[in-house]
Amino acid sequence: MRISVIGTGYVGLVTGTCLAETGNEVICVDIDEAKVERMRNGEVPIYEPHLELLFERNIKANRLKFTTSLDEGLAHAEIVFLALPTPENEDGAADLSYVLNVVEQIGKKITDYKVIVDKSTVPVGTAEKVHAIIAKHAPCEFDVVSNPEFLREGFAVDDFMKPERIIIGSSSERATALMKRLYSPFVRSGNPIIVMDEKSAELTKYASNAFLATKITFMNEIANYCEKVGADVDKVRAGMGTDSRIGKRFLFPGIGYGGSCFPKDVKALKKAGSDENYNFKILNSVLEINSDQKIILLPKIEKFFNNDLKGKTIAVWGLAFKPETDDIREAPSIDMMNGLLELNAKLQVFDPEAMPNIKKRFGDKLHYSESMYEALEGADALLICTEWSIFRTPDYSRLKNALNNPVIFDGRNLYNVSDMEAEGFTYVSIGRKAVNL
Ligand code: UDX
Predict the structure, then answer these.
(1) Which of 67, 94, 97, 436 has the greatest number of beta carbons closer than 10 A?
(2) Does 152 belong to an annotated binding site?
(3) Catalytic residues
(4) What is the pTM of this model?
């Protein structure tokens, strides 16, 4: 099939590449000329595992092309995906200006039937708005479909190629049939394509992300309570997770959720609710708890150093909001580091992928280390903010030798408490007993 994808961020690029992989002819459109040129030369502009291989293969096969021309994209495609940013407005609402600007142009430019697909996370009612804008100008038939993405950064290619479900919000049989044909290679395993009205599809995305953010936040509260009463959140989690109604996943406590989706989507859903005079009380709590959780280790570090961090050096492992990404948007590491800098601590930081992004943000306020062990040299404690695999099995004796004191504040519960106790580390984690304190 002939596809265009407008916008080549995470979602657009993964969507375009994976659709090309199943034999479709895909043109990706972006206004950023330099980025388009780089992509034409085979350079993937983001870090996303497995994307490069598919990217190169499909460019070579002439199925994946890039342009800055919306006209070219529209002339080519029967299905046009909108994968444009919907950033947060000051009031928390999703900013639809990128989407609606492009939609206006599409309305003015199309001359034959097309399906316009909302892939971006957009508030309920956006498909209706998009339809109205195109209808004002278009001389031909068209349909608007809501098809939210559920891609996790770091697993986006896998999630796209083997989705647990595809949601199609459509009230047109013609468009639904085209979308089902397009997605049929991805659901051979029997996973469902669920067709519903546009508004329900739009809300499915927000409801899913808000639910997952709530699930994590609930566990973070249980973890904090575990510390008060001497219970172990690992054991509580294992006990809860075996109940199939609860499930094992997304029960891992830590220093809060971050990223480009959960924080933005929870706020947007809350704002959308208040626009309809509906107060999402649960989401207010989730937002409040998560912002406290991001800095939950700060007072503990302060207390350990007798409320005086001046002249102390803290090594920080993990800066990305989660492993397998260079994305630092809303990363808990940022809140922790800002808090520590305010307390006059010096920071020696390391992350396998996110160093360039953190450098852009923090400039010369931090010391950037070449390796995880270099970050420890002469530090008074180690703080872990992201659970990269390489941090899971460190050389303990190297760690002890490099640090001034064998002290670890672990925001992601990477190690066994009893192992750390036996190794002689002062070890403070989330929802579990602190040892050698
Ligand atoms: C999320 C959704 O999973 C995806 O479906 C949606 O389309 C986009 O948003 P992503 O933001 O890439 O994906 O990351 P995800 O792996 O879901 O993690 C989100 C945050 O929750 C991270 O900060 C992670 O550290 C945190 N998290 C996750 C926990 O704190 N505990 C958990 O048990 C799981």
Answers:
(1) 94
(2) yes
(3) 261
(4) 0.94
